[in-house]
């Protein structure tokens, strides 16, 4: 855990030394300077929790330091040092945004008390921000819905995984609930009182992603008008969720590896290391091992992330969970009185759900917006559910609305191709025999529908 950082600006050398020793003995990390100009330069290169500055200094005075602090790092608290009897200066400083002031000659207990209150206020502000975020998105183990064997095994493992501090790699298809599981791990852990921050590595260009993760100093690049904490610093003591980690640029992967190995990083434009204690939970919908073999992902980083692997099964592998999920999403939408007819539920169970749980939730939301009845019928379902049959167990009913026969035949063919591969454990020659096809014809159909690799 990083120490609270204090910038001390005092031009009297004896007073500076006494204050520096006092603060370091109290457990703070102190940067001390003897004039306003050096204080301003320090503010431009680092971020501090507290600034203690004398008002009267040659050159740039304490007011200039106060203004610079508020411009660069508004959350940093400033404590002013004033000569005894100059309360007008102290009052003016408070009007300009100072947190408090100390009179010379100072009392040690007074400084300790003011600093304690300042640090508590800064931490309280951060905790309130964390609490607001948790109120918006509270994820617990109970929020993970599933009675299938695979989901029950996952839920039983999560509390034990949460108690560990090891990095976690979550794999699963898009929409399967990777962030839900990541947040549950954090909220079940001893880090739950600290921040959980999430970022999608696929949505930002390399430069912006780096600045979001590690922060930057004013002037580090065009548009950097103030100092900014990165997500790793914000997550100190907590967890950071790196979604779509496979999309992280190769050069940036090396910097992430350094954070894991040393627990330190540097903001863009800074030469100083910052030490943090952060648990990394990464996620991807790709085969990260295969990405390393193809040279697109660092192998050393892969092993550092894959300490505890978690695979979230796609919805088509746990279709017995669909009725529970439907009930959950109806309740979430405030539609507890709505239910799906047996035939409509049958269509849901037969559908392939390539978008997984997210697709199911979006579909239910769309149905509730467009349908007022309390019993959802097959004709209320989206067209793709009305005209599909993802399992060999039956055919959709032909009504006056008609069906797309070509699409239906393609879906039936795809279903049997995949089922044959499943039964044959991926051996294509055996799968071809199950369908009474030549191996050449079987490979052609796989290529036609983009199922796996066409080569054996």
Describe what is shown at a glance.
The chain is an alpha/beta fold. The chain has 19 helices and 16 strands.
What does this structure look like?
The protein is α/β, with parallel strands linked by helices. It is 47% helix and 14% strand. The protein has a five-stranded parallel β-sheet, with helices on both faces. The chain has a five-stranded parallel β-sheet with strand order 7-10-13-6-14. α1 (13-25) links the parallel β1 (5-9) and β2. α17 (405-423) crosses α18. The chain is elongated, with a radius of gyration of 30 Å.
Strand order of the largest sheet: 2-1-3-4-5
CATH architecture of the largest domain: 3-Layer(aba) Sandwich
The radius of gyration is: 30 Å
Main β-sheet, in a few words?
5 strands, parallel
Q: Which regions have little confidence, pLDDT < 50, spanning 5+ residues?
A: 389-393
Q: How far apart are the first and last residues' alpha carbons, in Å?
A: 52 Å
How many domains, in number, for the residues? Answer: 4
Instruction: Briefly note the CATH topology name of the largest domain.
Output: Rossmann fold
Strand content: 5-15%
Could you give the count of β-strands?
A: 16
**Overall mean pLDDT score?**
86
């Amino acid at each position: 855990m990083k120490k609270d950082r204090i910038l001390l600006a005092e031009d009297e050398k004896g007073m500076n030394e006494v204050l520096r020793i006092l603060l370091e003995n109290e457990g703070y990390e102190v940067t001390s300077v003897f004039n306003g100009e050096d204080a301003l330069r320090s503010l431009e290169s680092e971020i501090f929790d507290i600034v203690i500055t004398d008002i009267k200094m040659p050159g740039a005075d304490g007011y200039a330091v106060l203004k610079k602090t508020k411009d660069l790092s508004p959350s940093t608290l400033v404590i002013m040092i004033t000569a005894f009897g100059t309360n007008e200066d102290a009052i003016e400083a408070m009007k300009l945004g100072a947190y408090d002031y100390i009179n010379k000659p100072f009392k040690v207990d007074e400084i300790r008390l003011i600093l304690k209150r300042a640090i508590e206020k800064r931490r309280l502000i951060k905790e309130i921000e964390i609490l607001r975020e948790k109120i918006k998105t509270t994820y617990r183990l109970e929020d993970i819905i599933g009675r299938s064997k695979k989901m029950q095994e996952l839920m039983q493992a999560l509390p034990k995984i949460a108690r560990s501090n090891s990095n976690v790699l979550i794999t699963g298809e898009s929409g399967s609930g990777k962030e839900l599981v990541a947040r549950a791990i954090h909220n079940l852990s001893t880090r739950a009182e600290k921040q959980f921050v999430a970022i999608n590595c696929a949505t930002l260009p390399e430069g912006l992603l780096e600045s979001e993760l590690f922060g930057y100093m004013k002037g580090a690049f065009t548009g950097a008008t103030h100092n900014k904490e990165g997500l790793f610093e914000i997550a100190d003591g907590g967890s950071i969720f790196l979604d779509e980690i496979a999309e992280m640029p190769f050069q940036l992967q090396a910097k992430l590896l350094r954070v894991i190995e040393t627990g330190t990083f540097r903001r863009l434009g800074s030469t100083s290391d910052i030490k943090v204690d952060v648990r990394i939970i990464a996620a991807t919908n790709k085969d990260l091992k295969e990405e390393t073999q193809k040279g697109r992902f660092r192998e050393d980083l892969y092993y550092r992330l894959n300490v505890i692997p978690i695979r979230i099964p796609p919805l088509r592998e746990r279709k017995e969970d669909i009725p529970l999920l439907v009930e959950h999403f109806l309740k979430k939408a405030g539609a507890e009185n709505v239910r799906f007819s047996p035939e409509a539920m049958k269509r849901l169970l037969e559908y392939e759900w390539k978008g997984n749980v997210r697709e199911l939730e979006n579909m239910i939301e769309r149905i509730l917006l467009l349908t007022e009845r309390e019993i959802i019928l097959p004709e209320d379902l989206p067209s793709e559910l009305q005209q599909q049959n993802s399992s060999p167990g039956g055919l959709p009913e032909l009504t006056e609305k008609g069906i797309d026969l070509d699409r239906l035949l393609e879906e039936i063919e795809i279903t049997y191709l995949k089922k044959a591969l499943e039964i044959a454990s991926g051996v294509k020659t055996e799968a071809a025999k199950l369908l009474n096809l030549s191996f050449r014809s079987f490979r052609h159909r796989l290529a036609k529908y983009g199922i796996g690799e066409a080569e054996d």
